[in-house]
Amino acid sequence: MIEGFDHVGTDHVCSVCSCDFTDDEGGIQGYIGIIPVAFCPTCYSGICDMVEQMNDREWEGLTTEDKNIILIDAIRHNWNDKIIVEQIEAKLKEKNAW
After folding, report:
1. pLDDT of the residue at 15
2. Are 8 and 35 in the same domain?
3. I need a labelling partner for 72 at 20 to 30 A (CA). Which of 4, 16, 22, 96 fits?
4. Among candidate residues 67, 2, 15, 24, the one with its CA nearest the CA of residue 46
5. DSSP-derived secondary structure letter, 23
């Protein structure tokens, strides 16, 4: 349950579908910024799936080998997100060049 800005107890109401769920069922409670939220197992799974789909879009069109090369270089050179996206875009342009 959310009271004010705090999560209390073991009974929760999903911030998406308003169903009741307990800690034993799974789900997650936390904050988006300072706003307390709780997600039942079904909605939490759906949110995770949506994020996964959004993340996959930027890699679309690259082979597993291309992805691994970029990720290994990112780790070696401590690239930030902007550089990683630039590398993905460069690789996609290279693959799509006639």
Report:
1. 92
2. yes
3. 96
4. 15
5. G
Q: What's the confidence (pLDDT) of residue 36?
A: 86
Question: Residue 36: which domain range?
Answer: 2-50
What 1-8 contacts at long range (C-beta under 8 Å, 24+ apart), as own/partner pairs, is 2/36, 2/37, 2/38, 5/34, 5/36, 6/36, 7/36, 7/38
**In whole angstroms, what separates CA 74 from the centre of its chain?**
19
- Tell me: do 7 and 35 sit in the same domain: yes
DSSP state of 11: E
What are the Cα distances from residue 62, in Å, to 32, 69, 84? 32, 11, 13
Q: Does one domain contain both 46 and 8?
A: yes
Is 5 a residue whose pLDDT tops 60?
A: no
Structural domain count of the chain:
2
